[in-house]
Amino acid sequence: MPTMRNGASFEGGNGARRSSEWFDRQDLDGFLHRSWLKSSGVTDDAFRGRPVIGICNSWSELVNCNVHLRGLAESVKRGVLQSGGFPLEFPVMSLGESLMKPTTMLYRNLMAMDVEESIRSYPLDGVVLLTGCDKTNPASIMGAASADIPTIVVTGGPMLNGRWRGREIGSCSDCWHYHEELRAGRITEADWVEIENGMSRSNGHCMTMGTASTMACVTEALGLTLPGGAAIPAVDSRRRHLAEAAGRQIVELVDAGLRPSDILTREAFENAIRVLHAISGSTNAILHLLAYAGRVGVELPLQLFDDLCASTPWLVDLKPAGRFLMEDFFYAGGVPAVMAQIPELLHLEAVTVTNRTVGENIAGAEIINRDVIRSASDPLDAGGALVVLRGTLCPDGAVMKITAAGPELLQHEGRAIVFEDIHDLAARVDDPELECDASSVMVLRNAGPVGAPGMPEWGHLPIPAKLLREGVSDLLRISDARMSGTSYGAIVLHVAPESAVGGPLALVRNGDLIRLDVSKRRLDLVVDAAELEARRSSWEPPPRKDERGYRQLHADRVLQANEGCDFDFLRGKSAVVQDAVTYL
Ligand code: FES
């Protein structure tokens, strides 16, 4: 029986590979499995006795960030063949941030189910996940974690840096920035079209440190992808080299029997959280890491993200919090260079898909450009970026990316302007009669996992036009929604419990005083308890939006933000199919 580096054994049937249950049997089932495979033109020599490697591809023409993954799959196949494996590519549902409505997050768990059940039910010994756009990465990892056969992730890589009139522009941090410039009349419609044309110059995912880039970096920090893989631009030939290497490595991983549950340990999660803070990554990563932990049975409280924040230096100067873009990050040394700056904060003994440790993977990694990646002795900030708040407005927690906020708003008191939902917001935000000033606190409710549904990225509430014209550039904004990883501002997100299930956000009224104190990690609704109780007794949940199908399932079973928004029944894992007999 093959053994892993740590001495554990692979549960592959009777010590044999899973696929041999399908292809090596001499009964009618074996005949059927082989004969239909041969319809593709392959011969016995191509697959008999070889590990079968699934290439789980989230390619789709509806998902622009993943549209190049068919080509990347060819590189993976080459690698698998070089190592004596038999590659089979298969499609799964794909989730595109820019086109899918109301939000890809509504469908993350559905894609995860597709990935899990595809892996579980087919004769695969190992799998390479091809991912790119924001939710395709976590959905694939969640599914693979529950299926728990040897797995390597290959992310699609970021787009080249955007360009406009000699300036580097990033998707989509500069969309928000220039849209506000347009609304304030500081750029023209013609400028706006030029920006649209210069923003997305190549295949790949958004090239700021948005959610897709963050999840690629976090995947690398977890040990699920080959070292250095997160930052290589999508169209750089070195990404195809990486994919080919992953194809070779997955065969070794199958032989070693190293599975996601061996890699996704508490120590690996702590490494990922350290890197998340060091790169000033997207708040969305918190939700996804919580969901992964639930799949593999690791205790990962929301509070841990805050506990590791203050002691982790912010090192990577990328938009939206900083200045540069992913292409620059790649040339500067990428994730290995970041991790090599903070070895004392990492669990260097954690094992990875290289079948080596984190410490071995990052040995010798150097910063090439110290403007883009700062050294640990010269950080952008001594502490990390993402804090967890608690208080009367968010008893189960809320999150805030403090590096994206104006420092003057991190301690703030102001009167609430409440928007009942996204439609109310759209209708009133630019109304000249809207009562607001620079101290106002914008509150959006019914934007959470159940209420929206799917917790869309509505948390980056637009600043009222009349305040923009007065020169106000930031405002405290609070919601039970998420925010694009490319957004910025004094924005409190993921308020739990959400308003649609009766969280305190549902009880806020116009003019209520709200107090934020980031130094104390507090967010409070300063309203008398008796008054709040009276409001609660007359509160009624909003009508359900979905009465059938997947969306009804989502509303019934989705967990709150502080638990990662997975479905309650998807936590943990199920045994993969080992018995390939057809029961007629
Ligand atoms: Fe796909 Fe941004 S739209 S990563």
Give a topology summary.
Layout: H1 18-23, H2 28-38, H3 44-47, E1 52-57, H4 69-82, E2 86-91, H5 105-121, E3 126-131, H6 136-147, E4 151-155, E5 162-164, E6 167-169, H7 173-183, H8 189-199, H9 211-222, H10 237-256, H11 260-263, H12 266-278, H13 284-296, H14 303-307, H15 326-332, H16 334-341, H17 358-362, E7 386-391, E8 394-401, E9 411-419, H18 422-428, E10 441-444, H19 465-469, E11 476-479, E12 491-493, E13 513-517, E14 522-526, H20 529-537, H21 549-557
Helix pairs in contact: 4-10, 5-6, 6-13, 7-8, 9-12, 12-13
The structure holds FE2/S2 (inorganic) cluster.
FE2/S2 (inorganic) cluster is lined by residues 65, 97-98, 133-134, 205-206, 210, 212.
Account of the 3D structure:
This protein is α/β, with parallel strands linked by helices and 584 residues long. It is 35% helix and 12% strand. It is built from 21 helices and 14 strands. It has helices at 18-23, 28-38, 44-47, 69-82, 105-121, 136-147, 173-183, 189-199, 211-222, 237-256, 260-263, 266-278, 284-296, 303-307, 326-332, 334-341, 358-362, 422-428, 465-469, 529-537, 549-557; strands at residues 52-57, 86-91, 126-131, 151-155, 162-164, 167-169, 386-391, 394-401, 411-419, 441-444, 476-479, 491-493, 513-517, 522-526. Strands 7-8-12-11-10-9-13-14 form an eight-stranded mixed sheet. Strand 1, helix 4 (69-82) and strand 2 form a beta-alpha-beta unit. Helix 4 packs across helix 10 and helix 5 runs parallel beside helix 6 (136-147). The longest helix has 20 residues, at 237-256. The chain is globular and about 75 Å long. Bound molecules: FE2/S2 (inorganic) cluster. The site of FE2/S2 (inorganic) cluster has 9 residues, from loops.
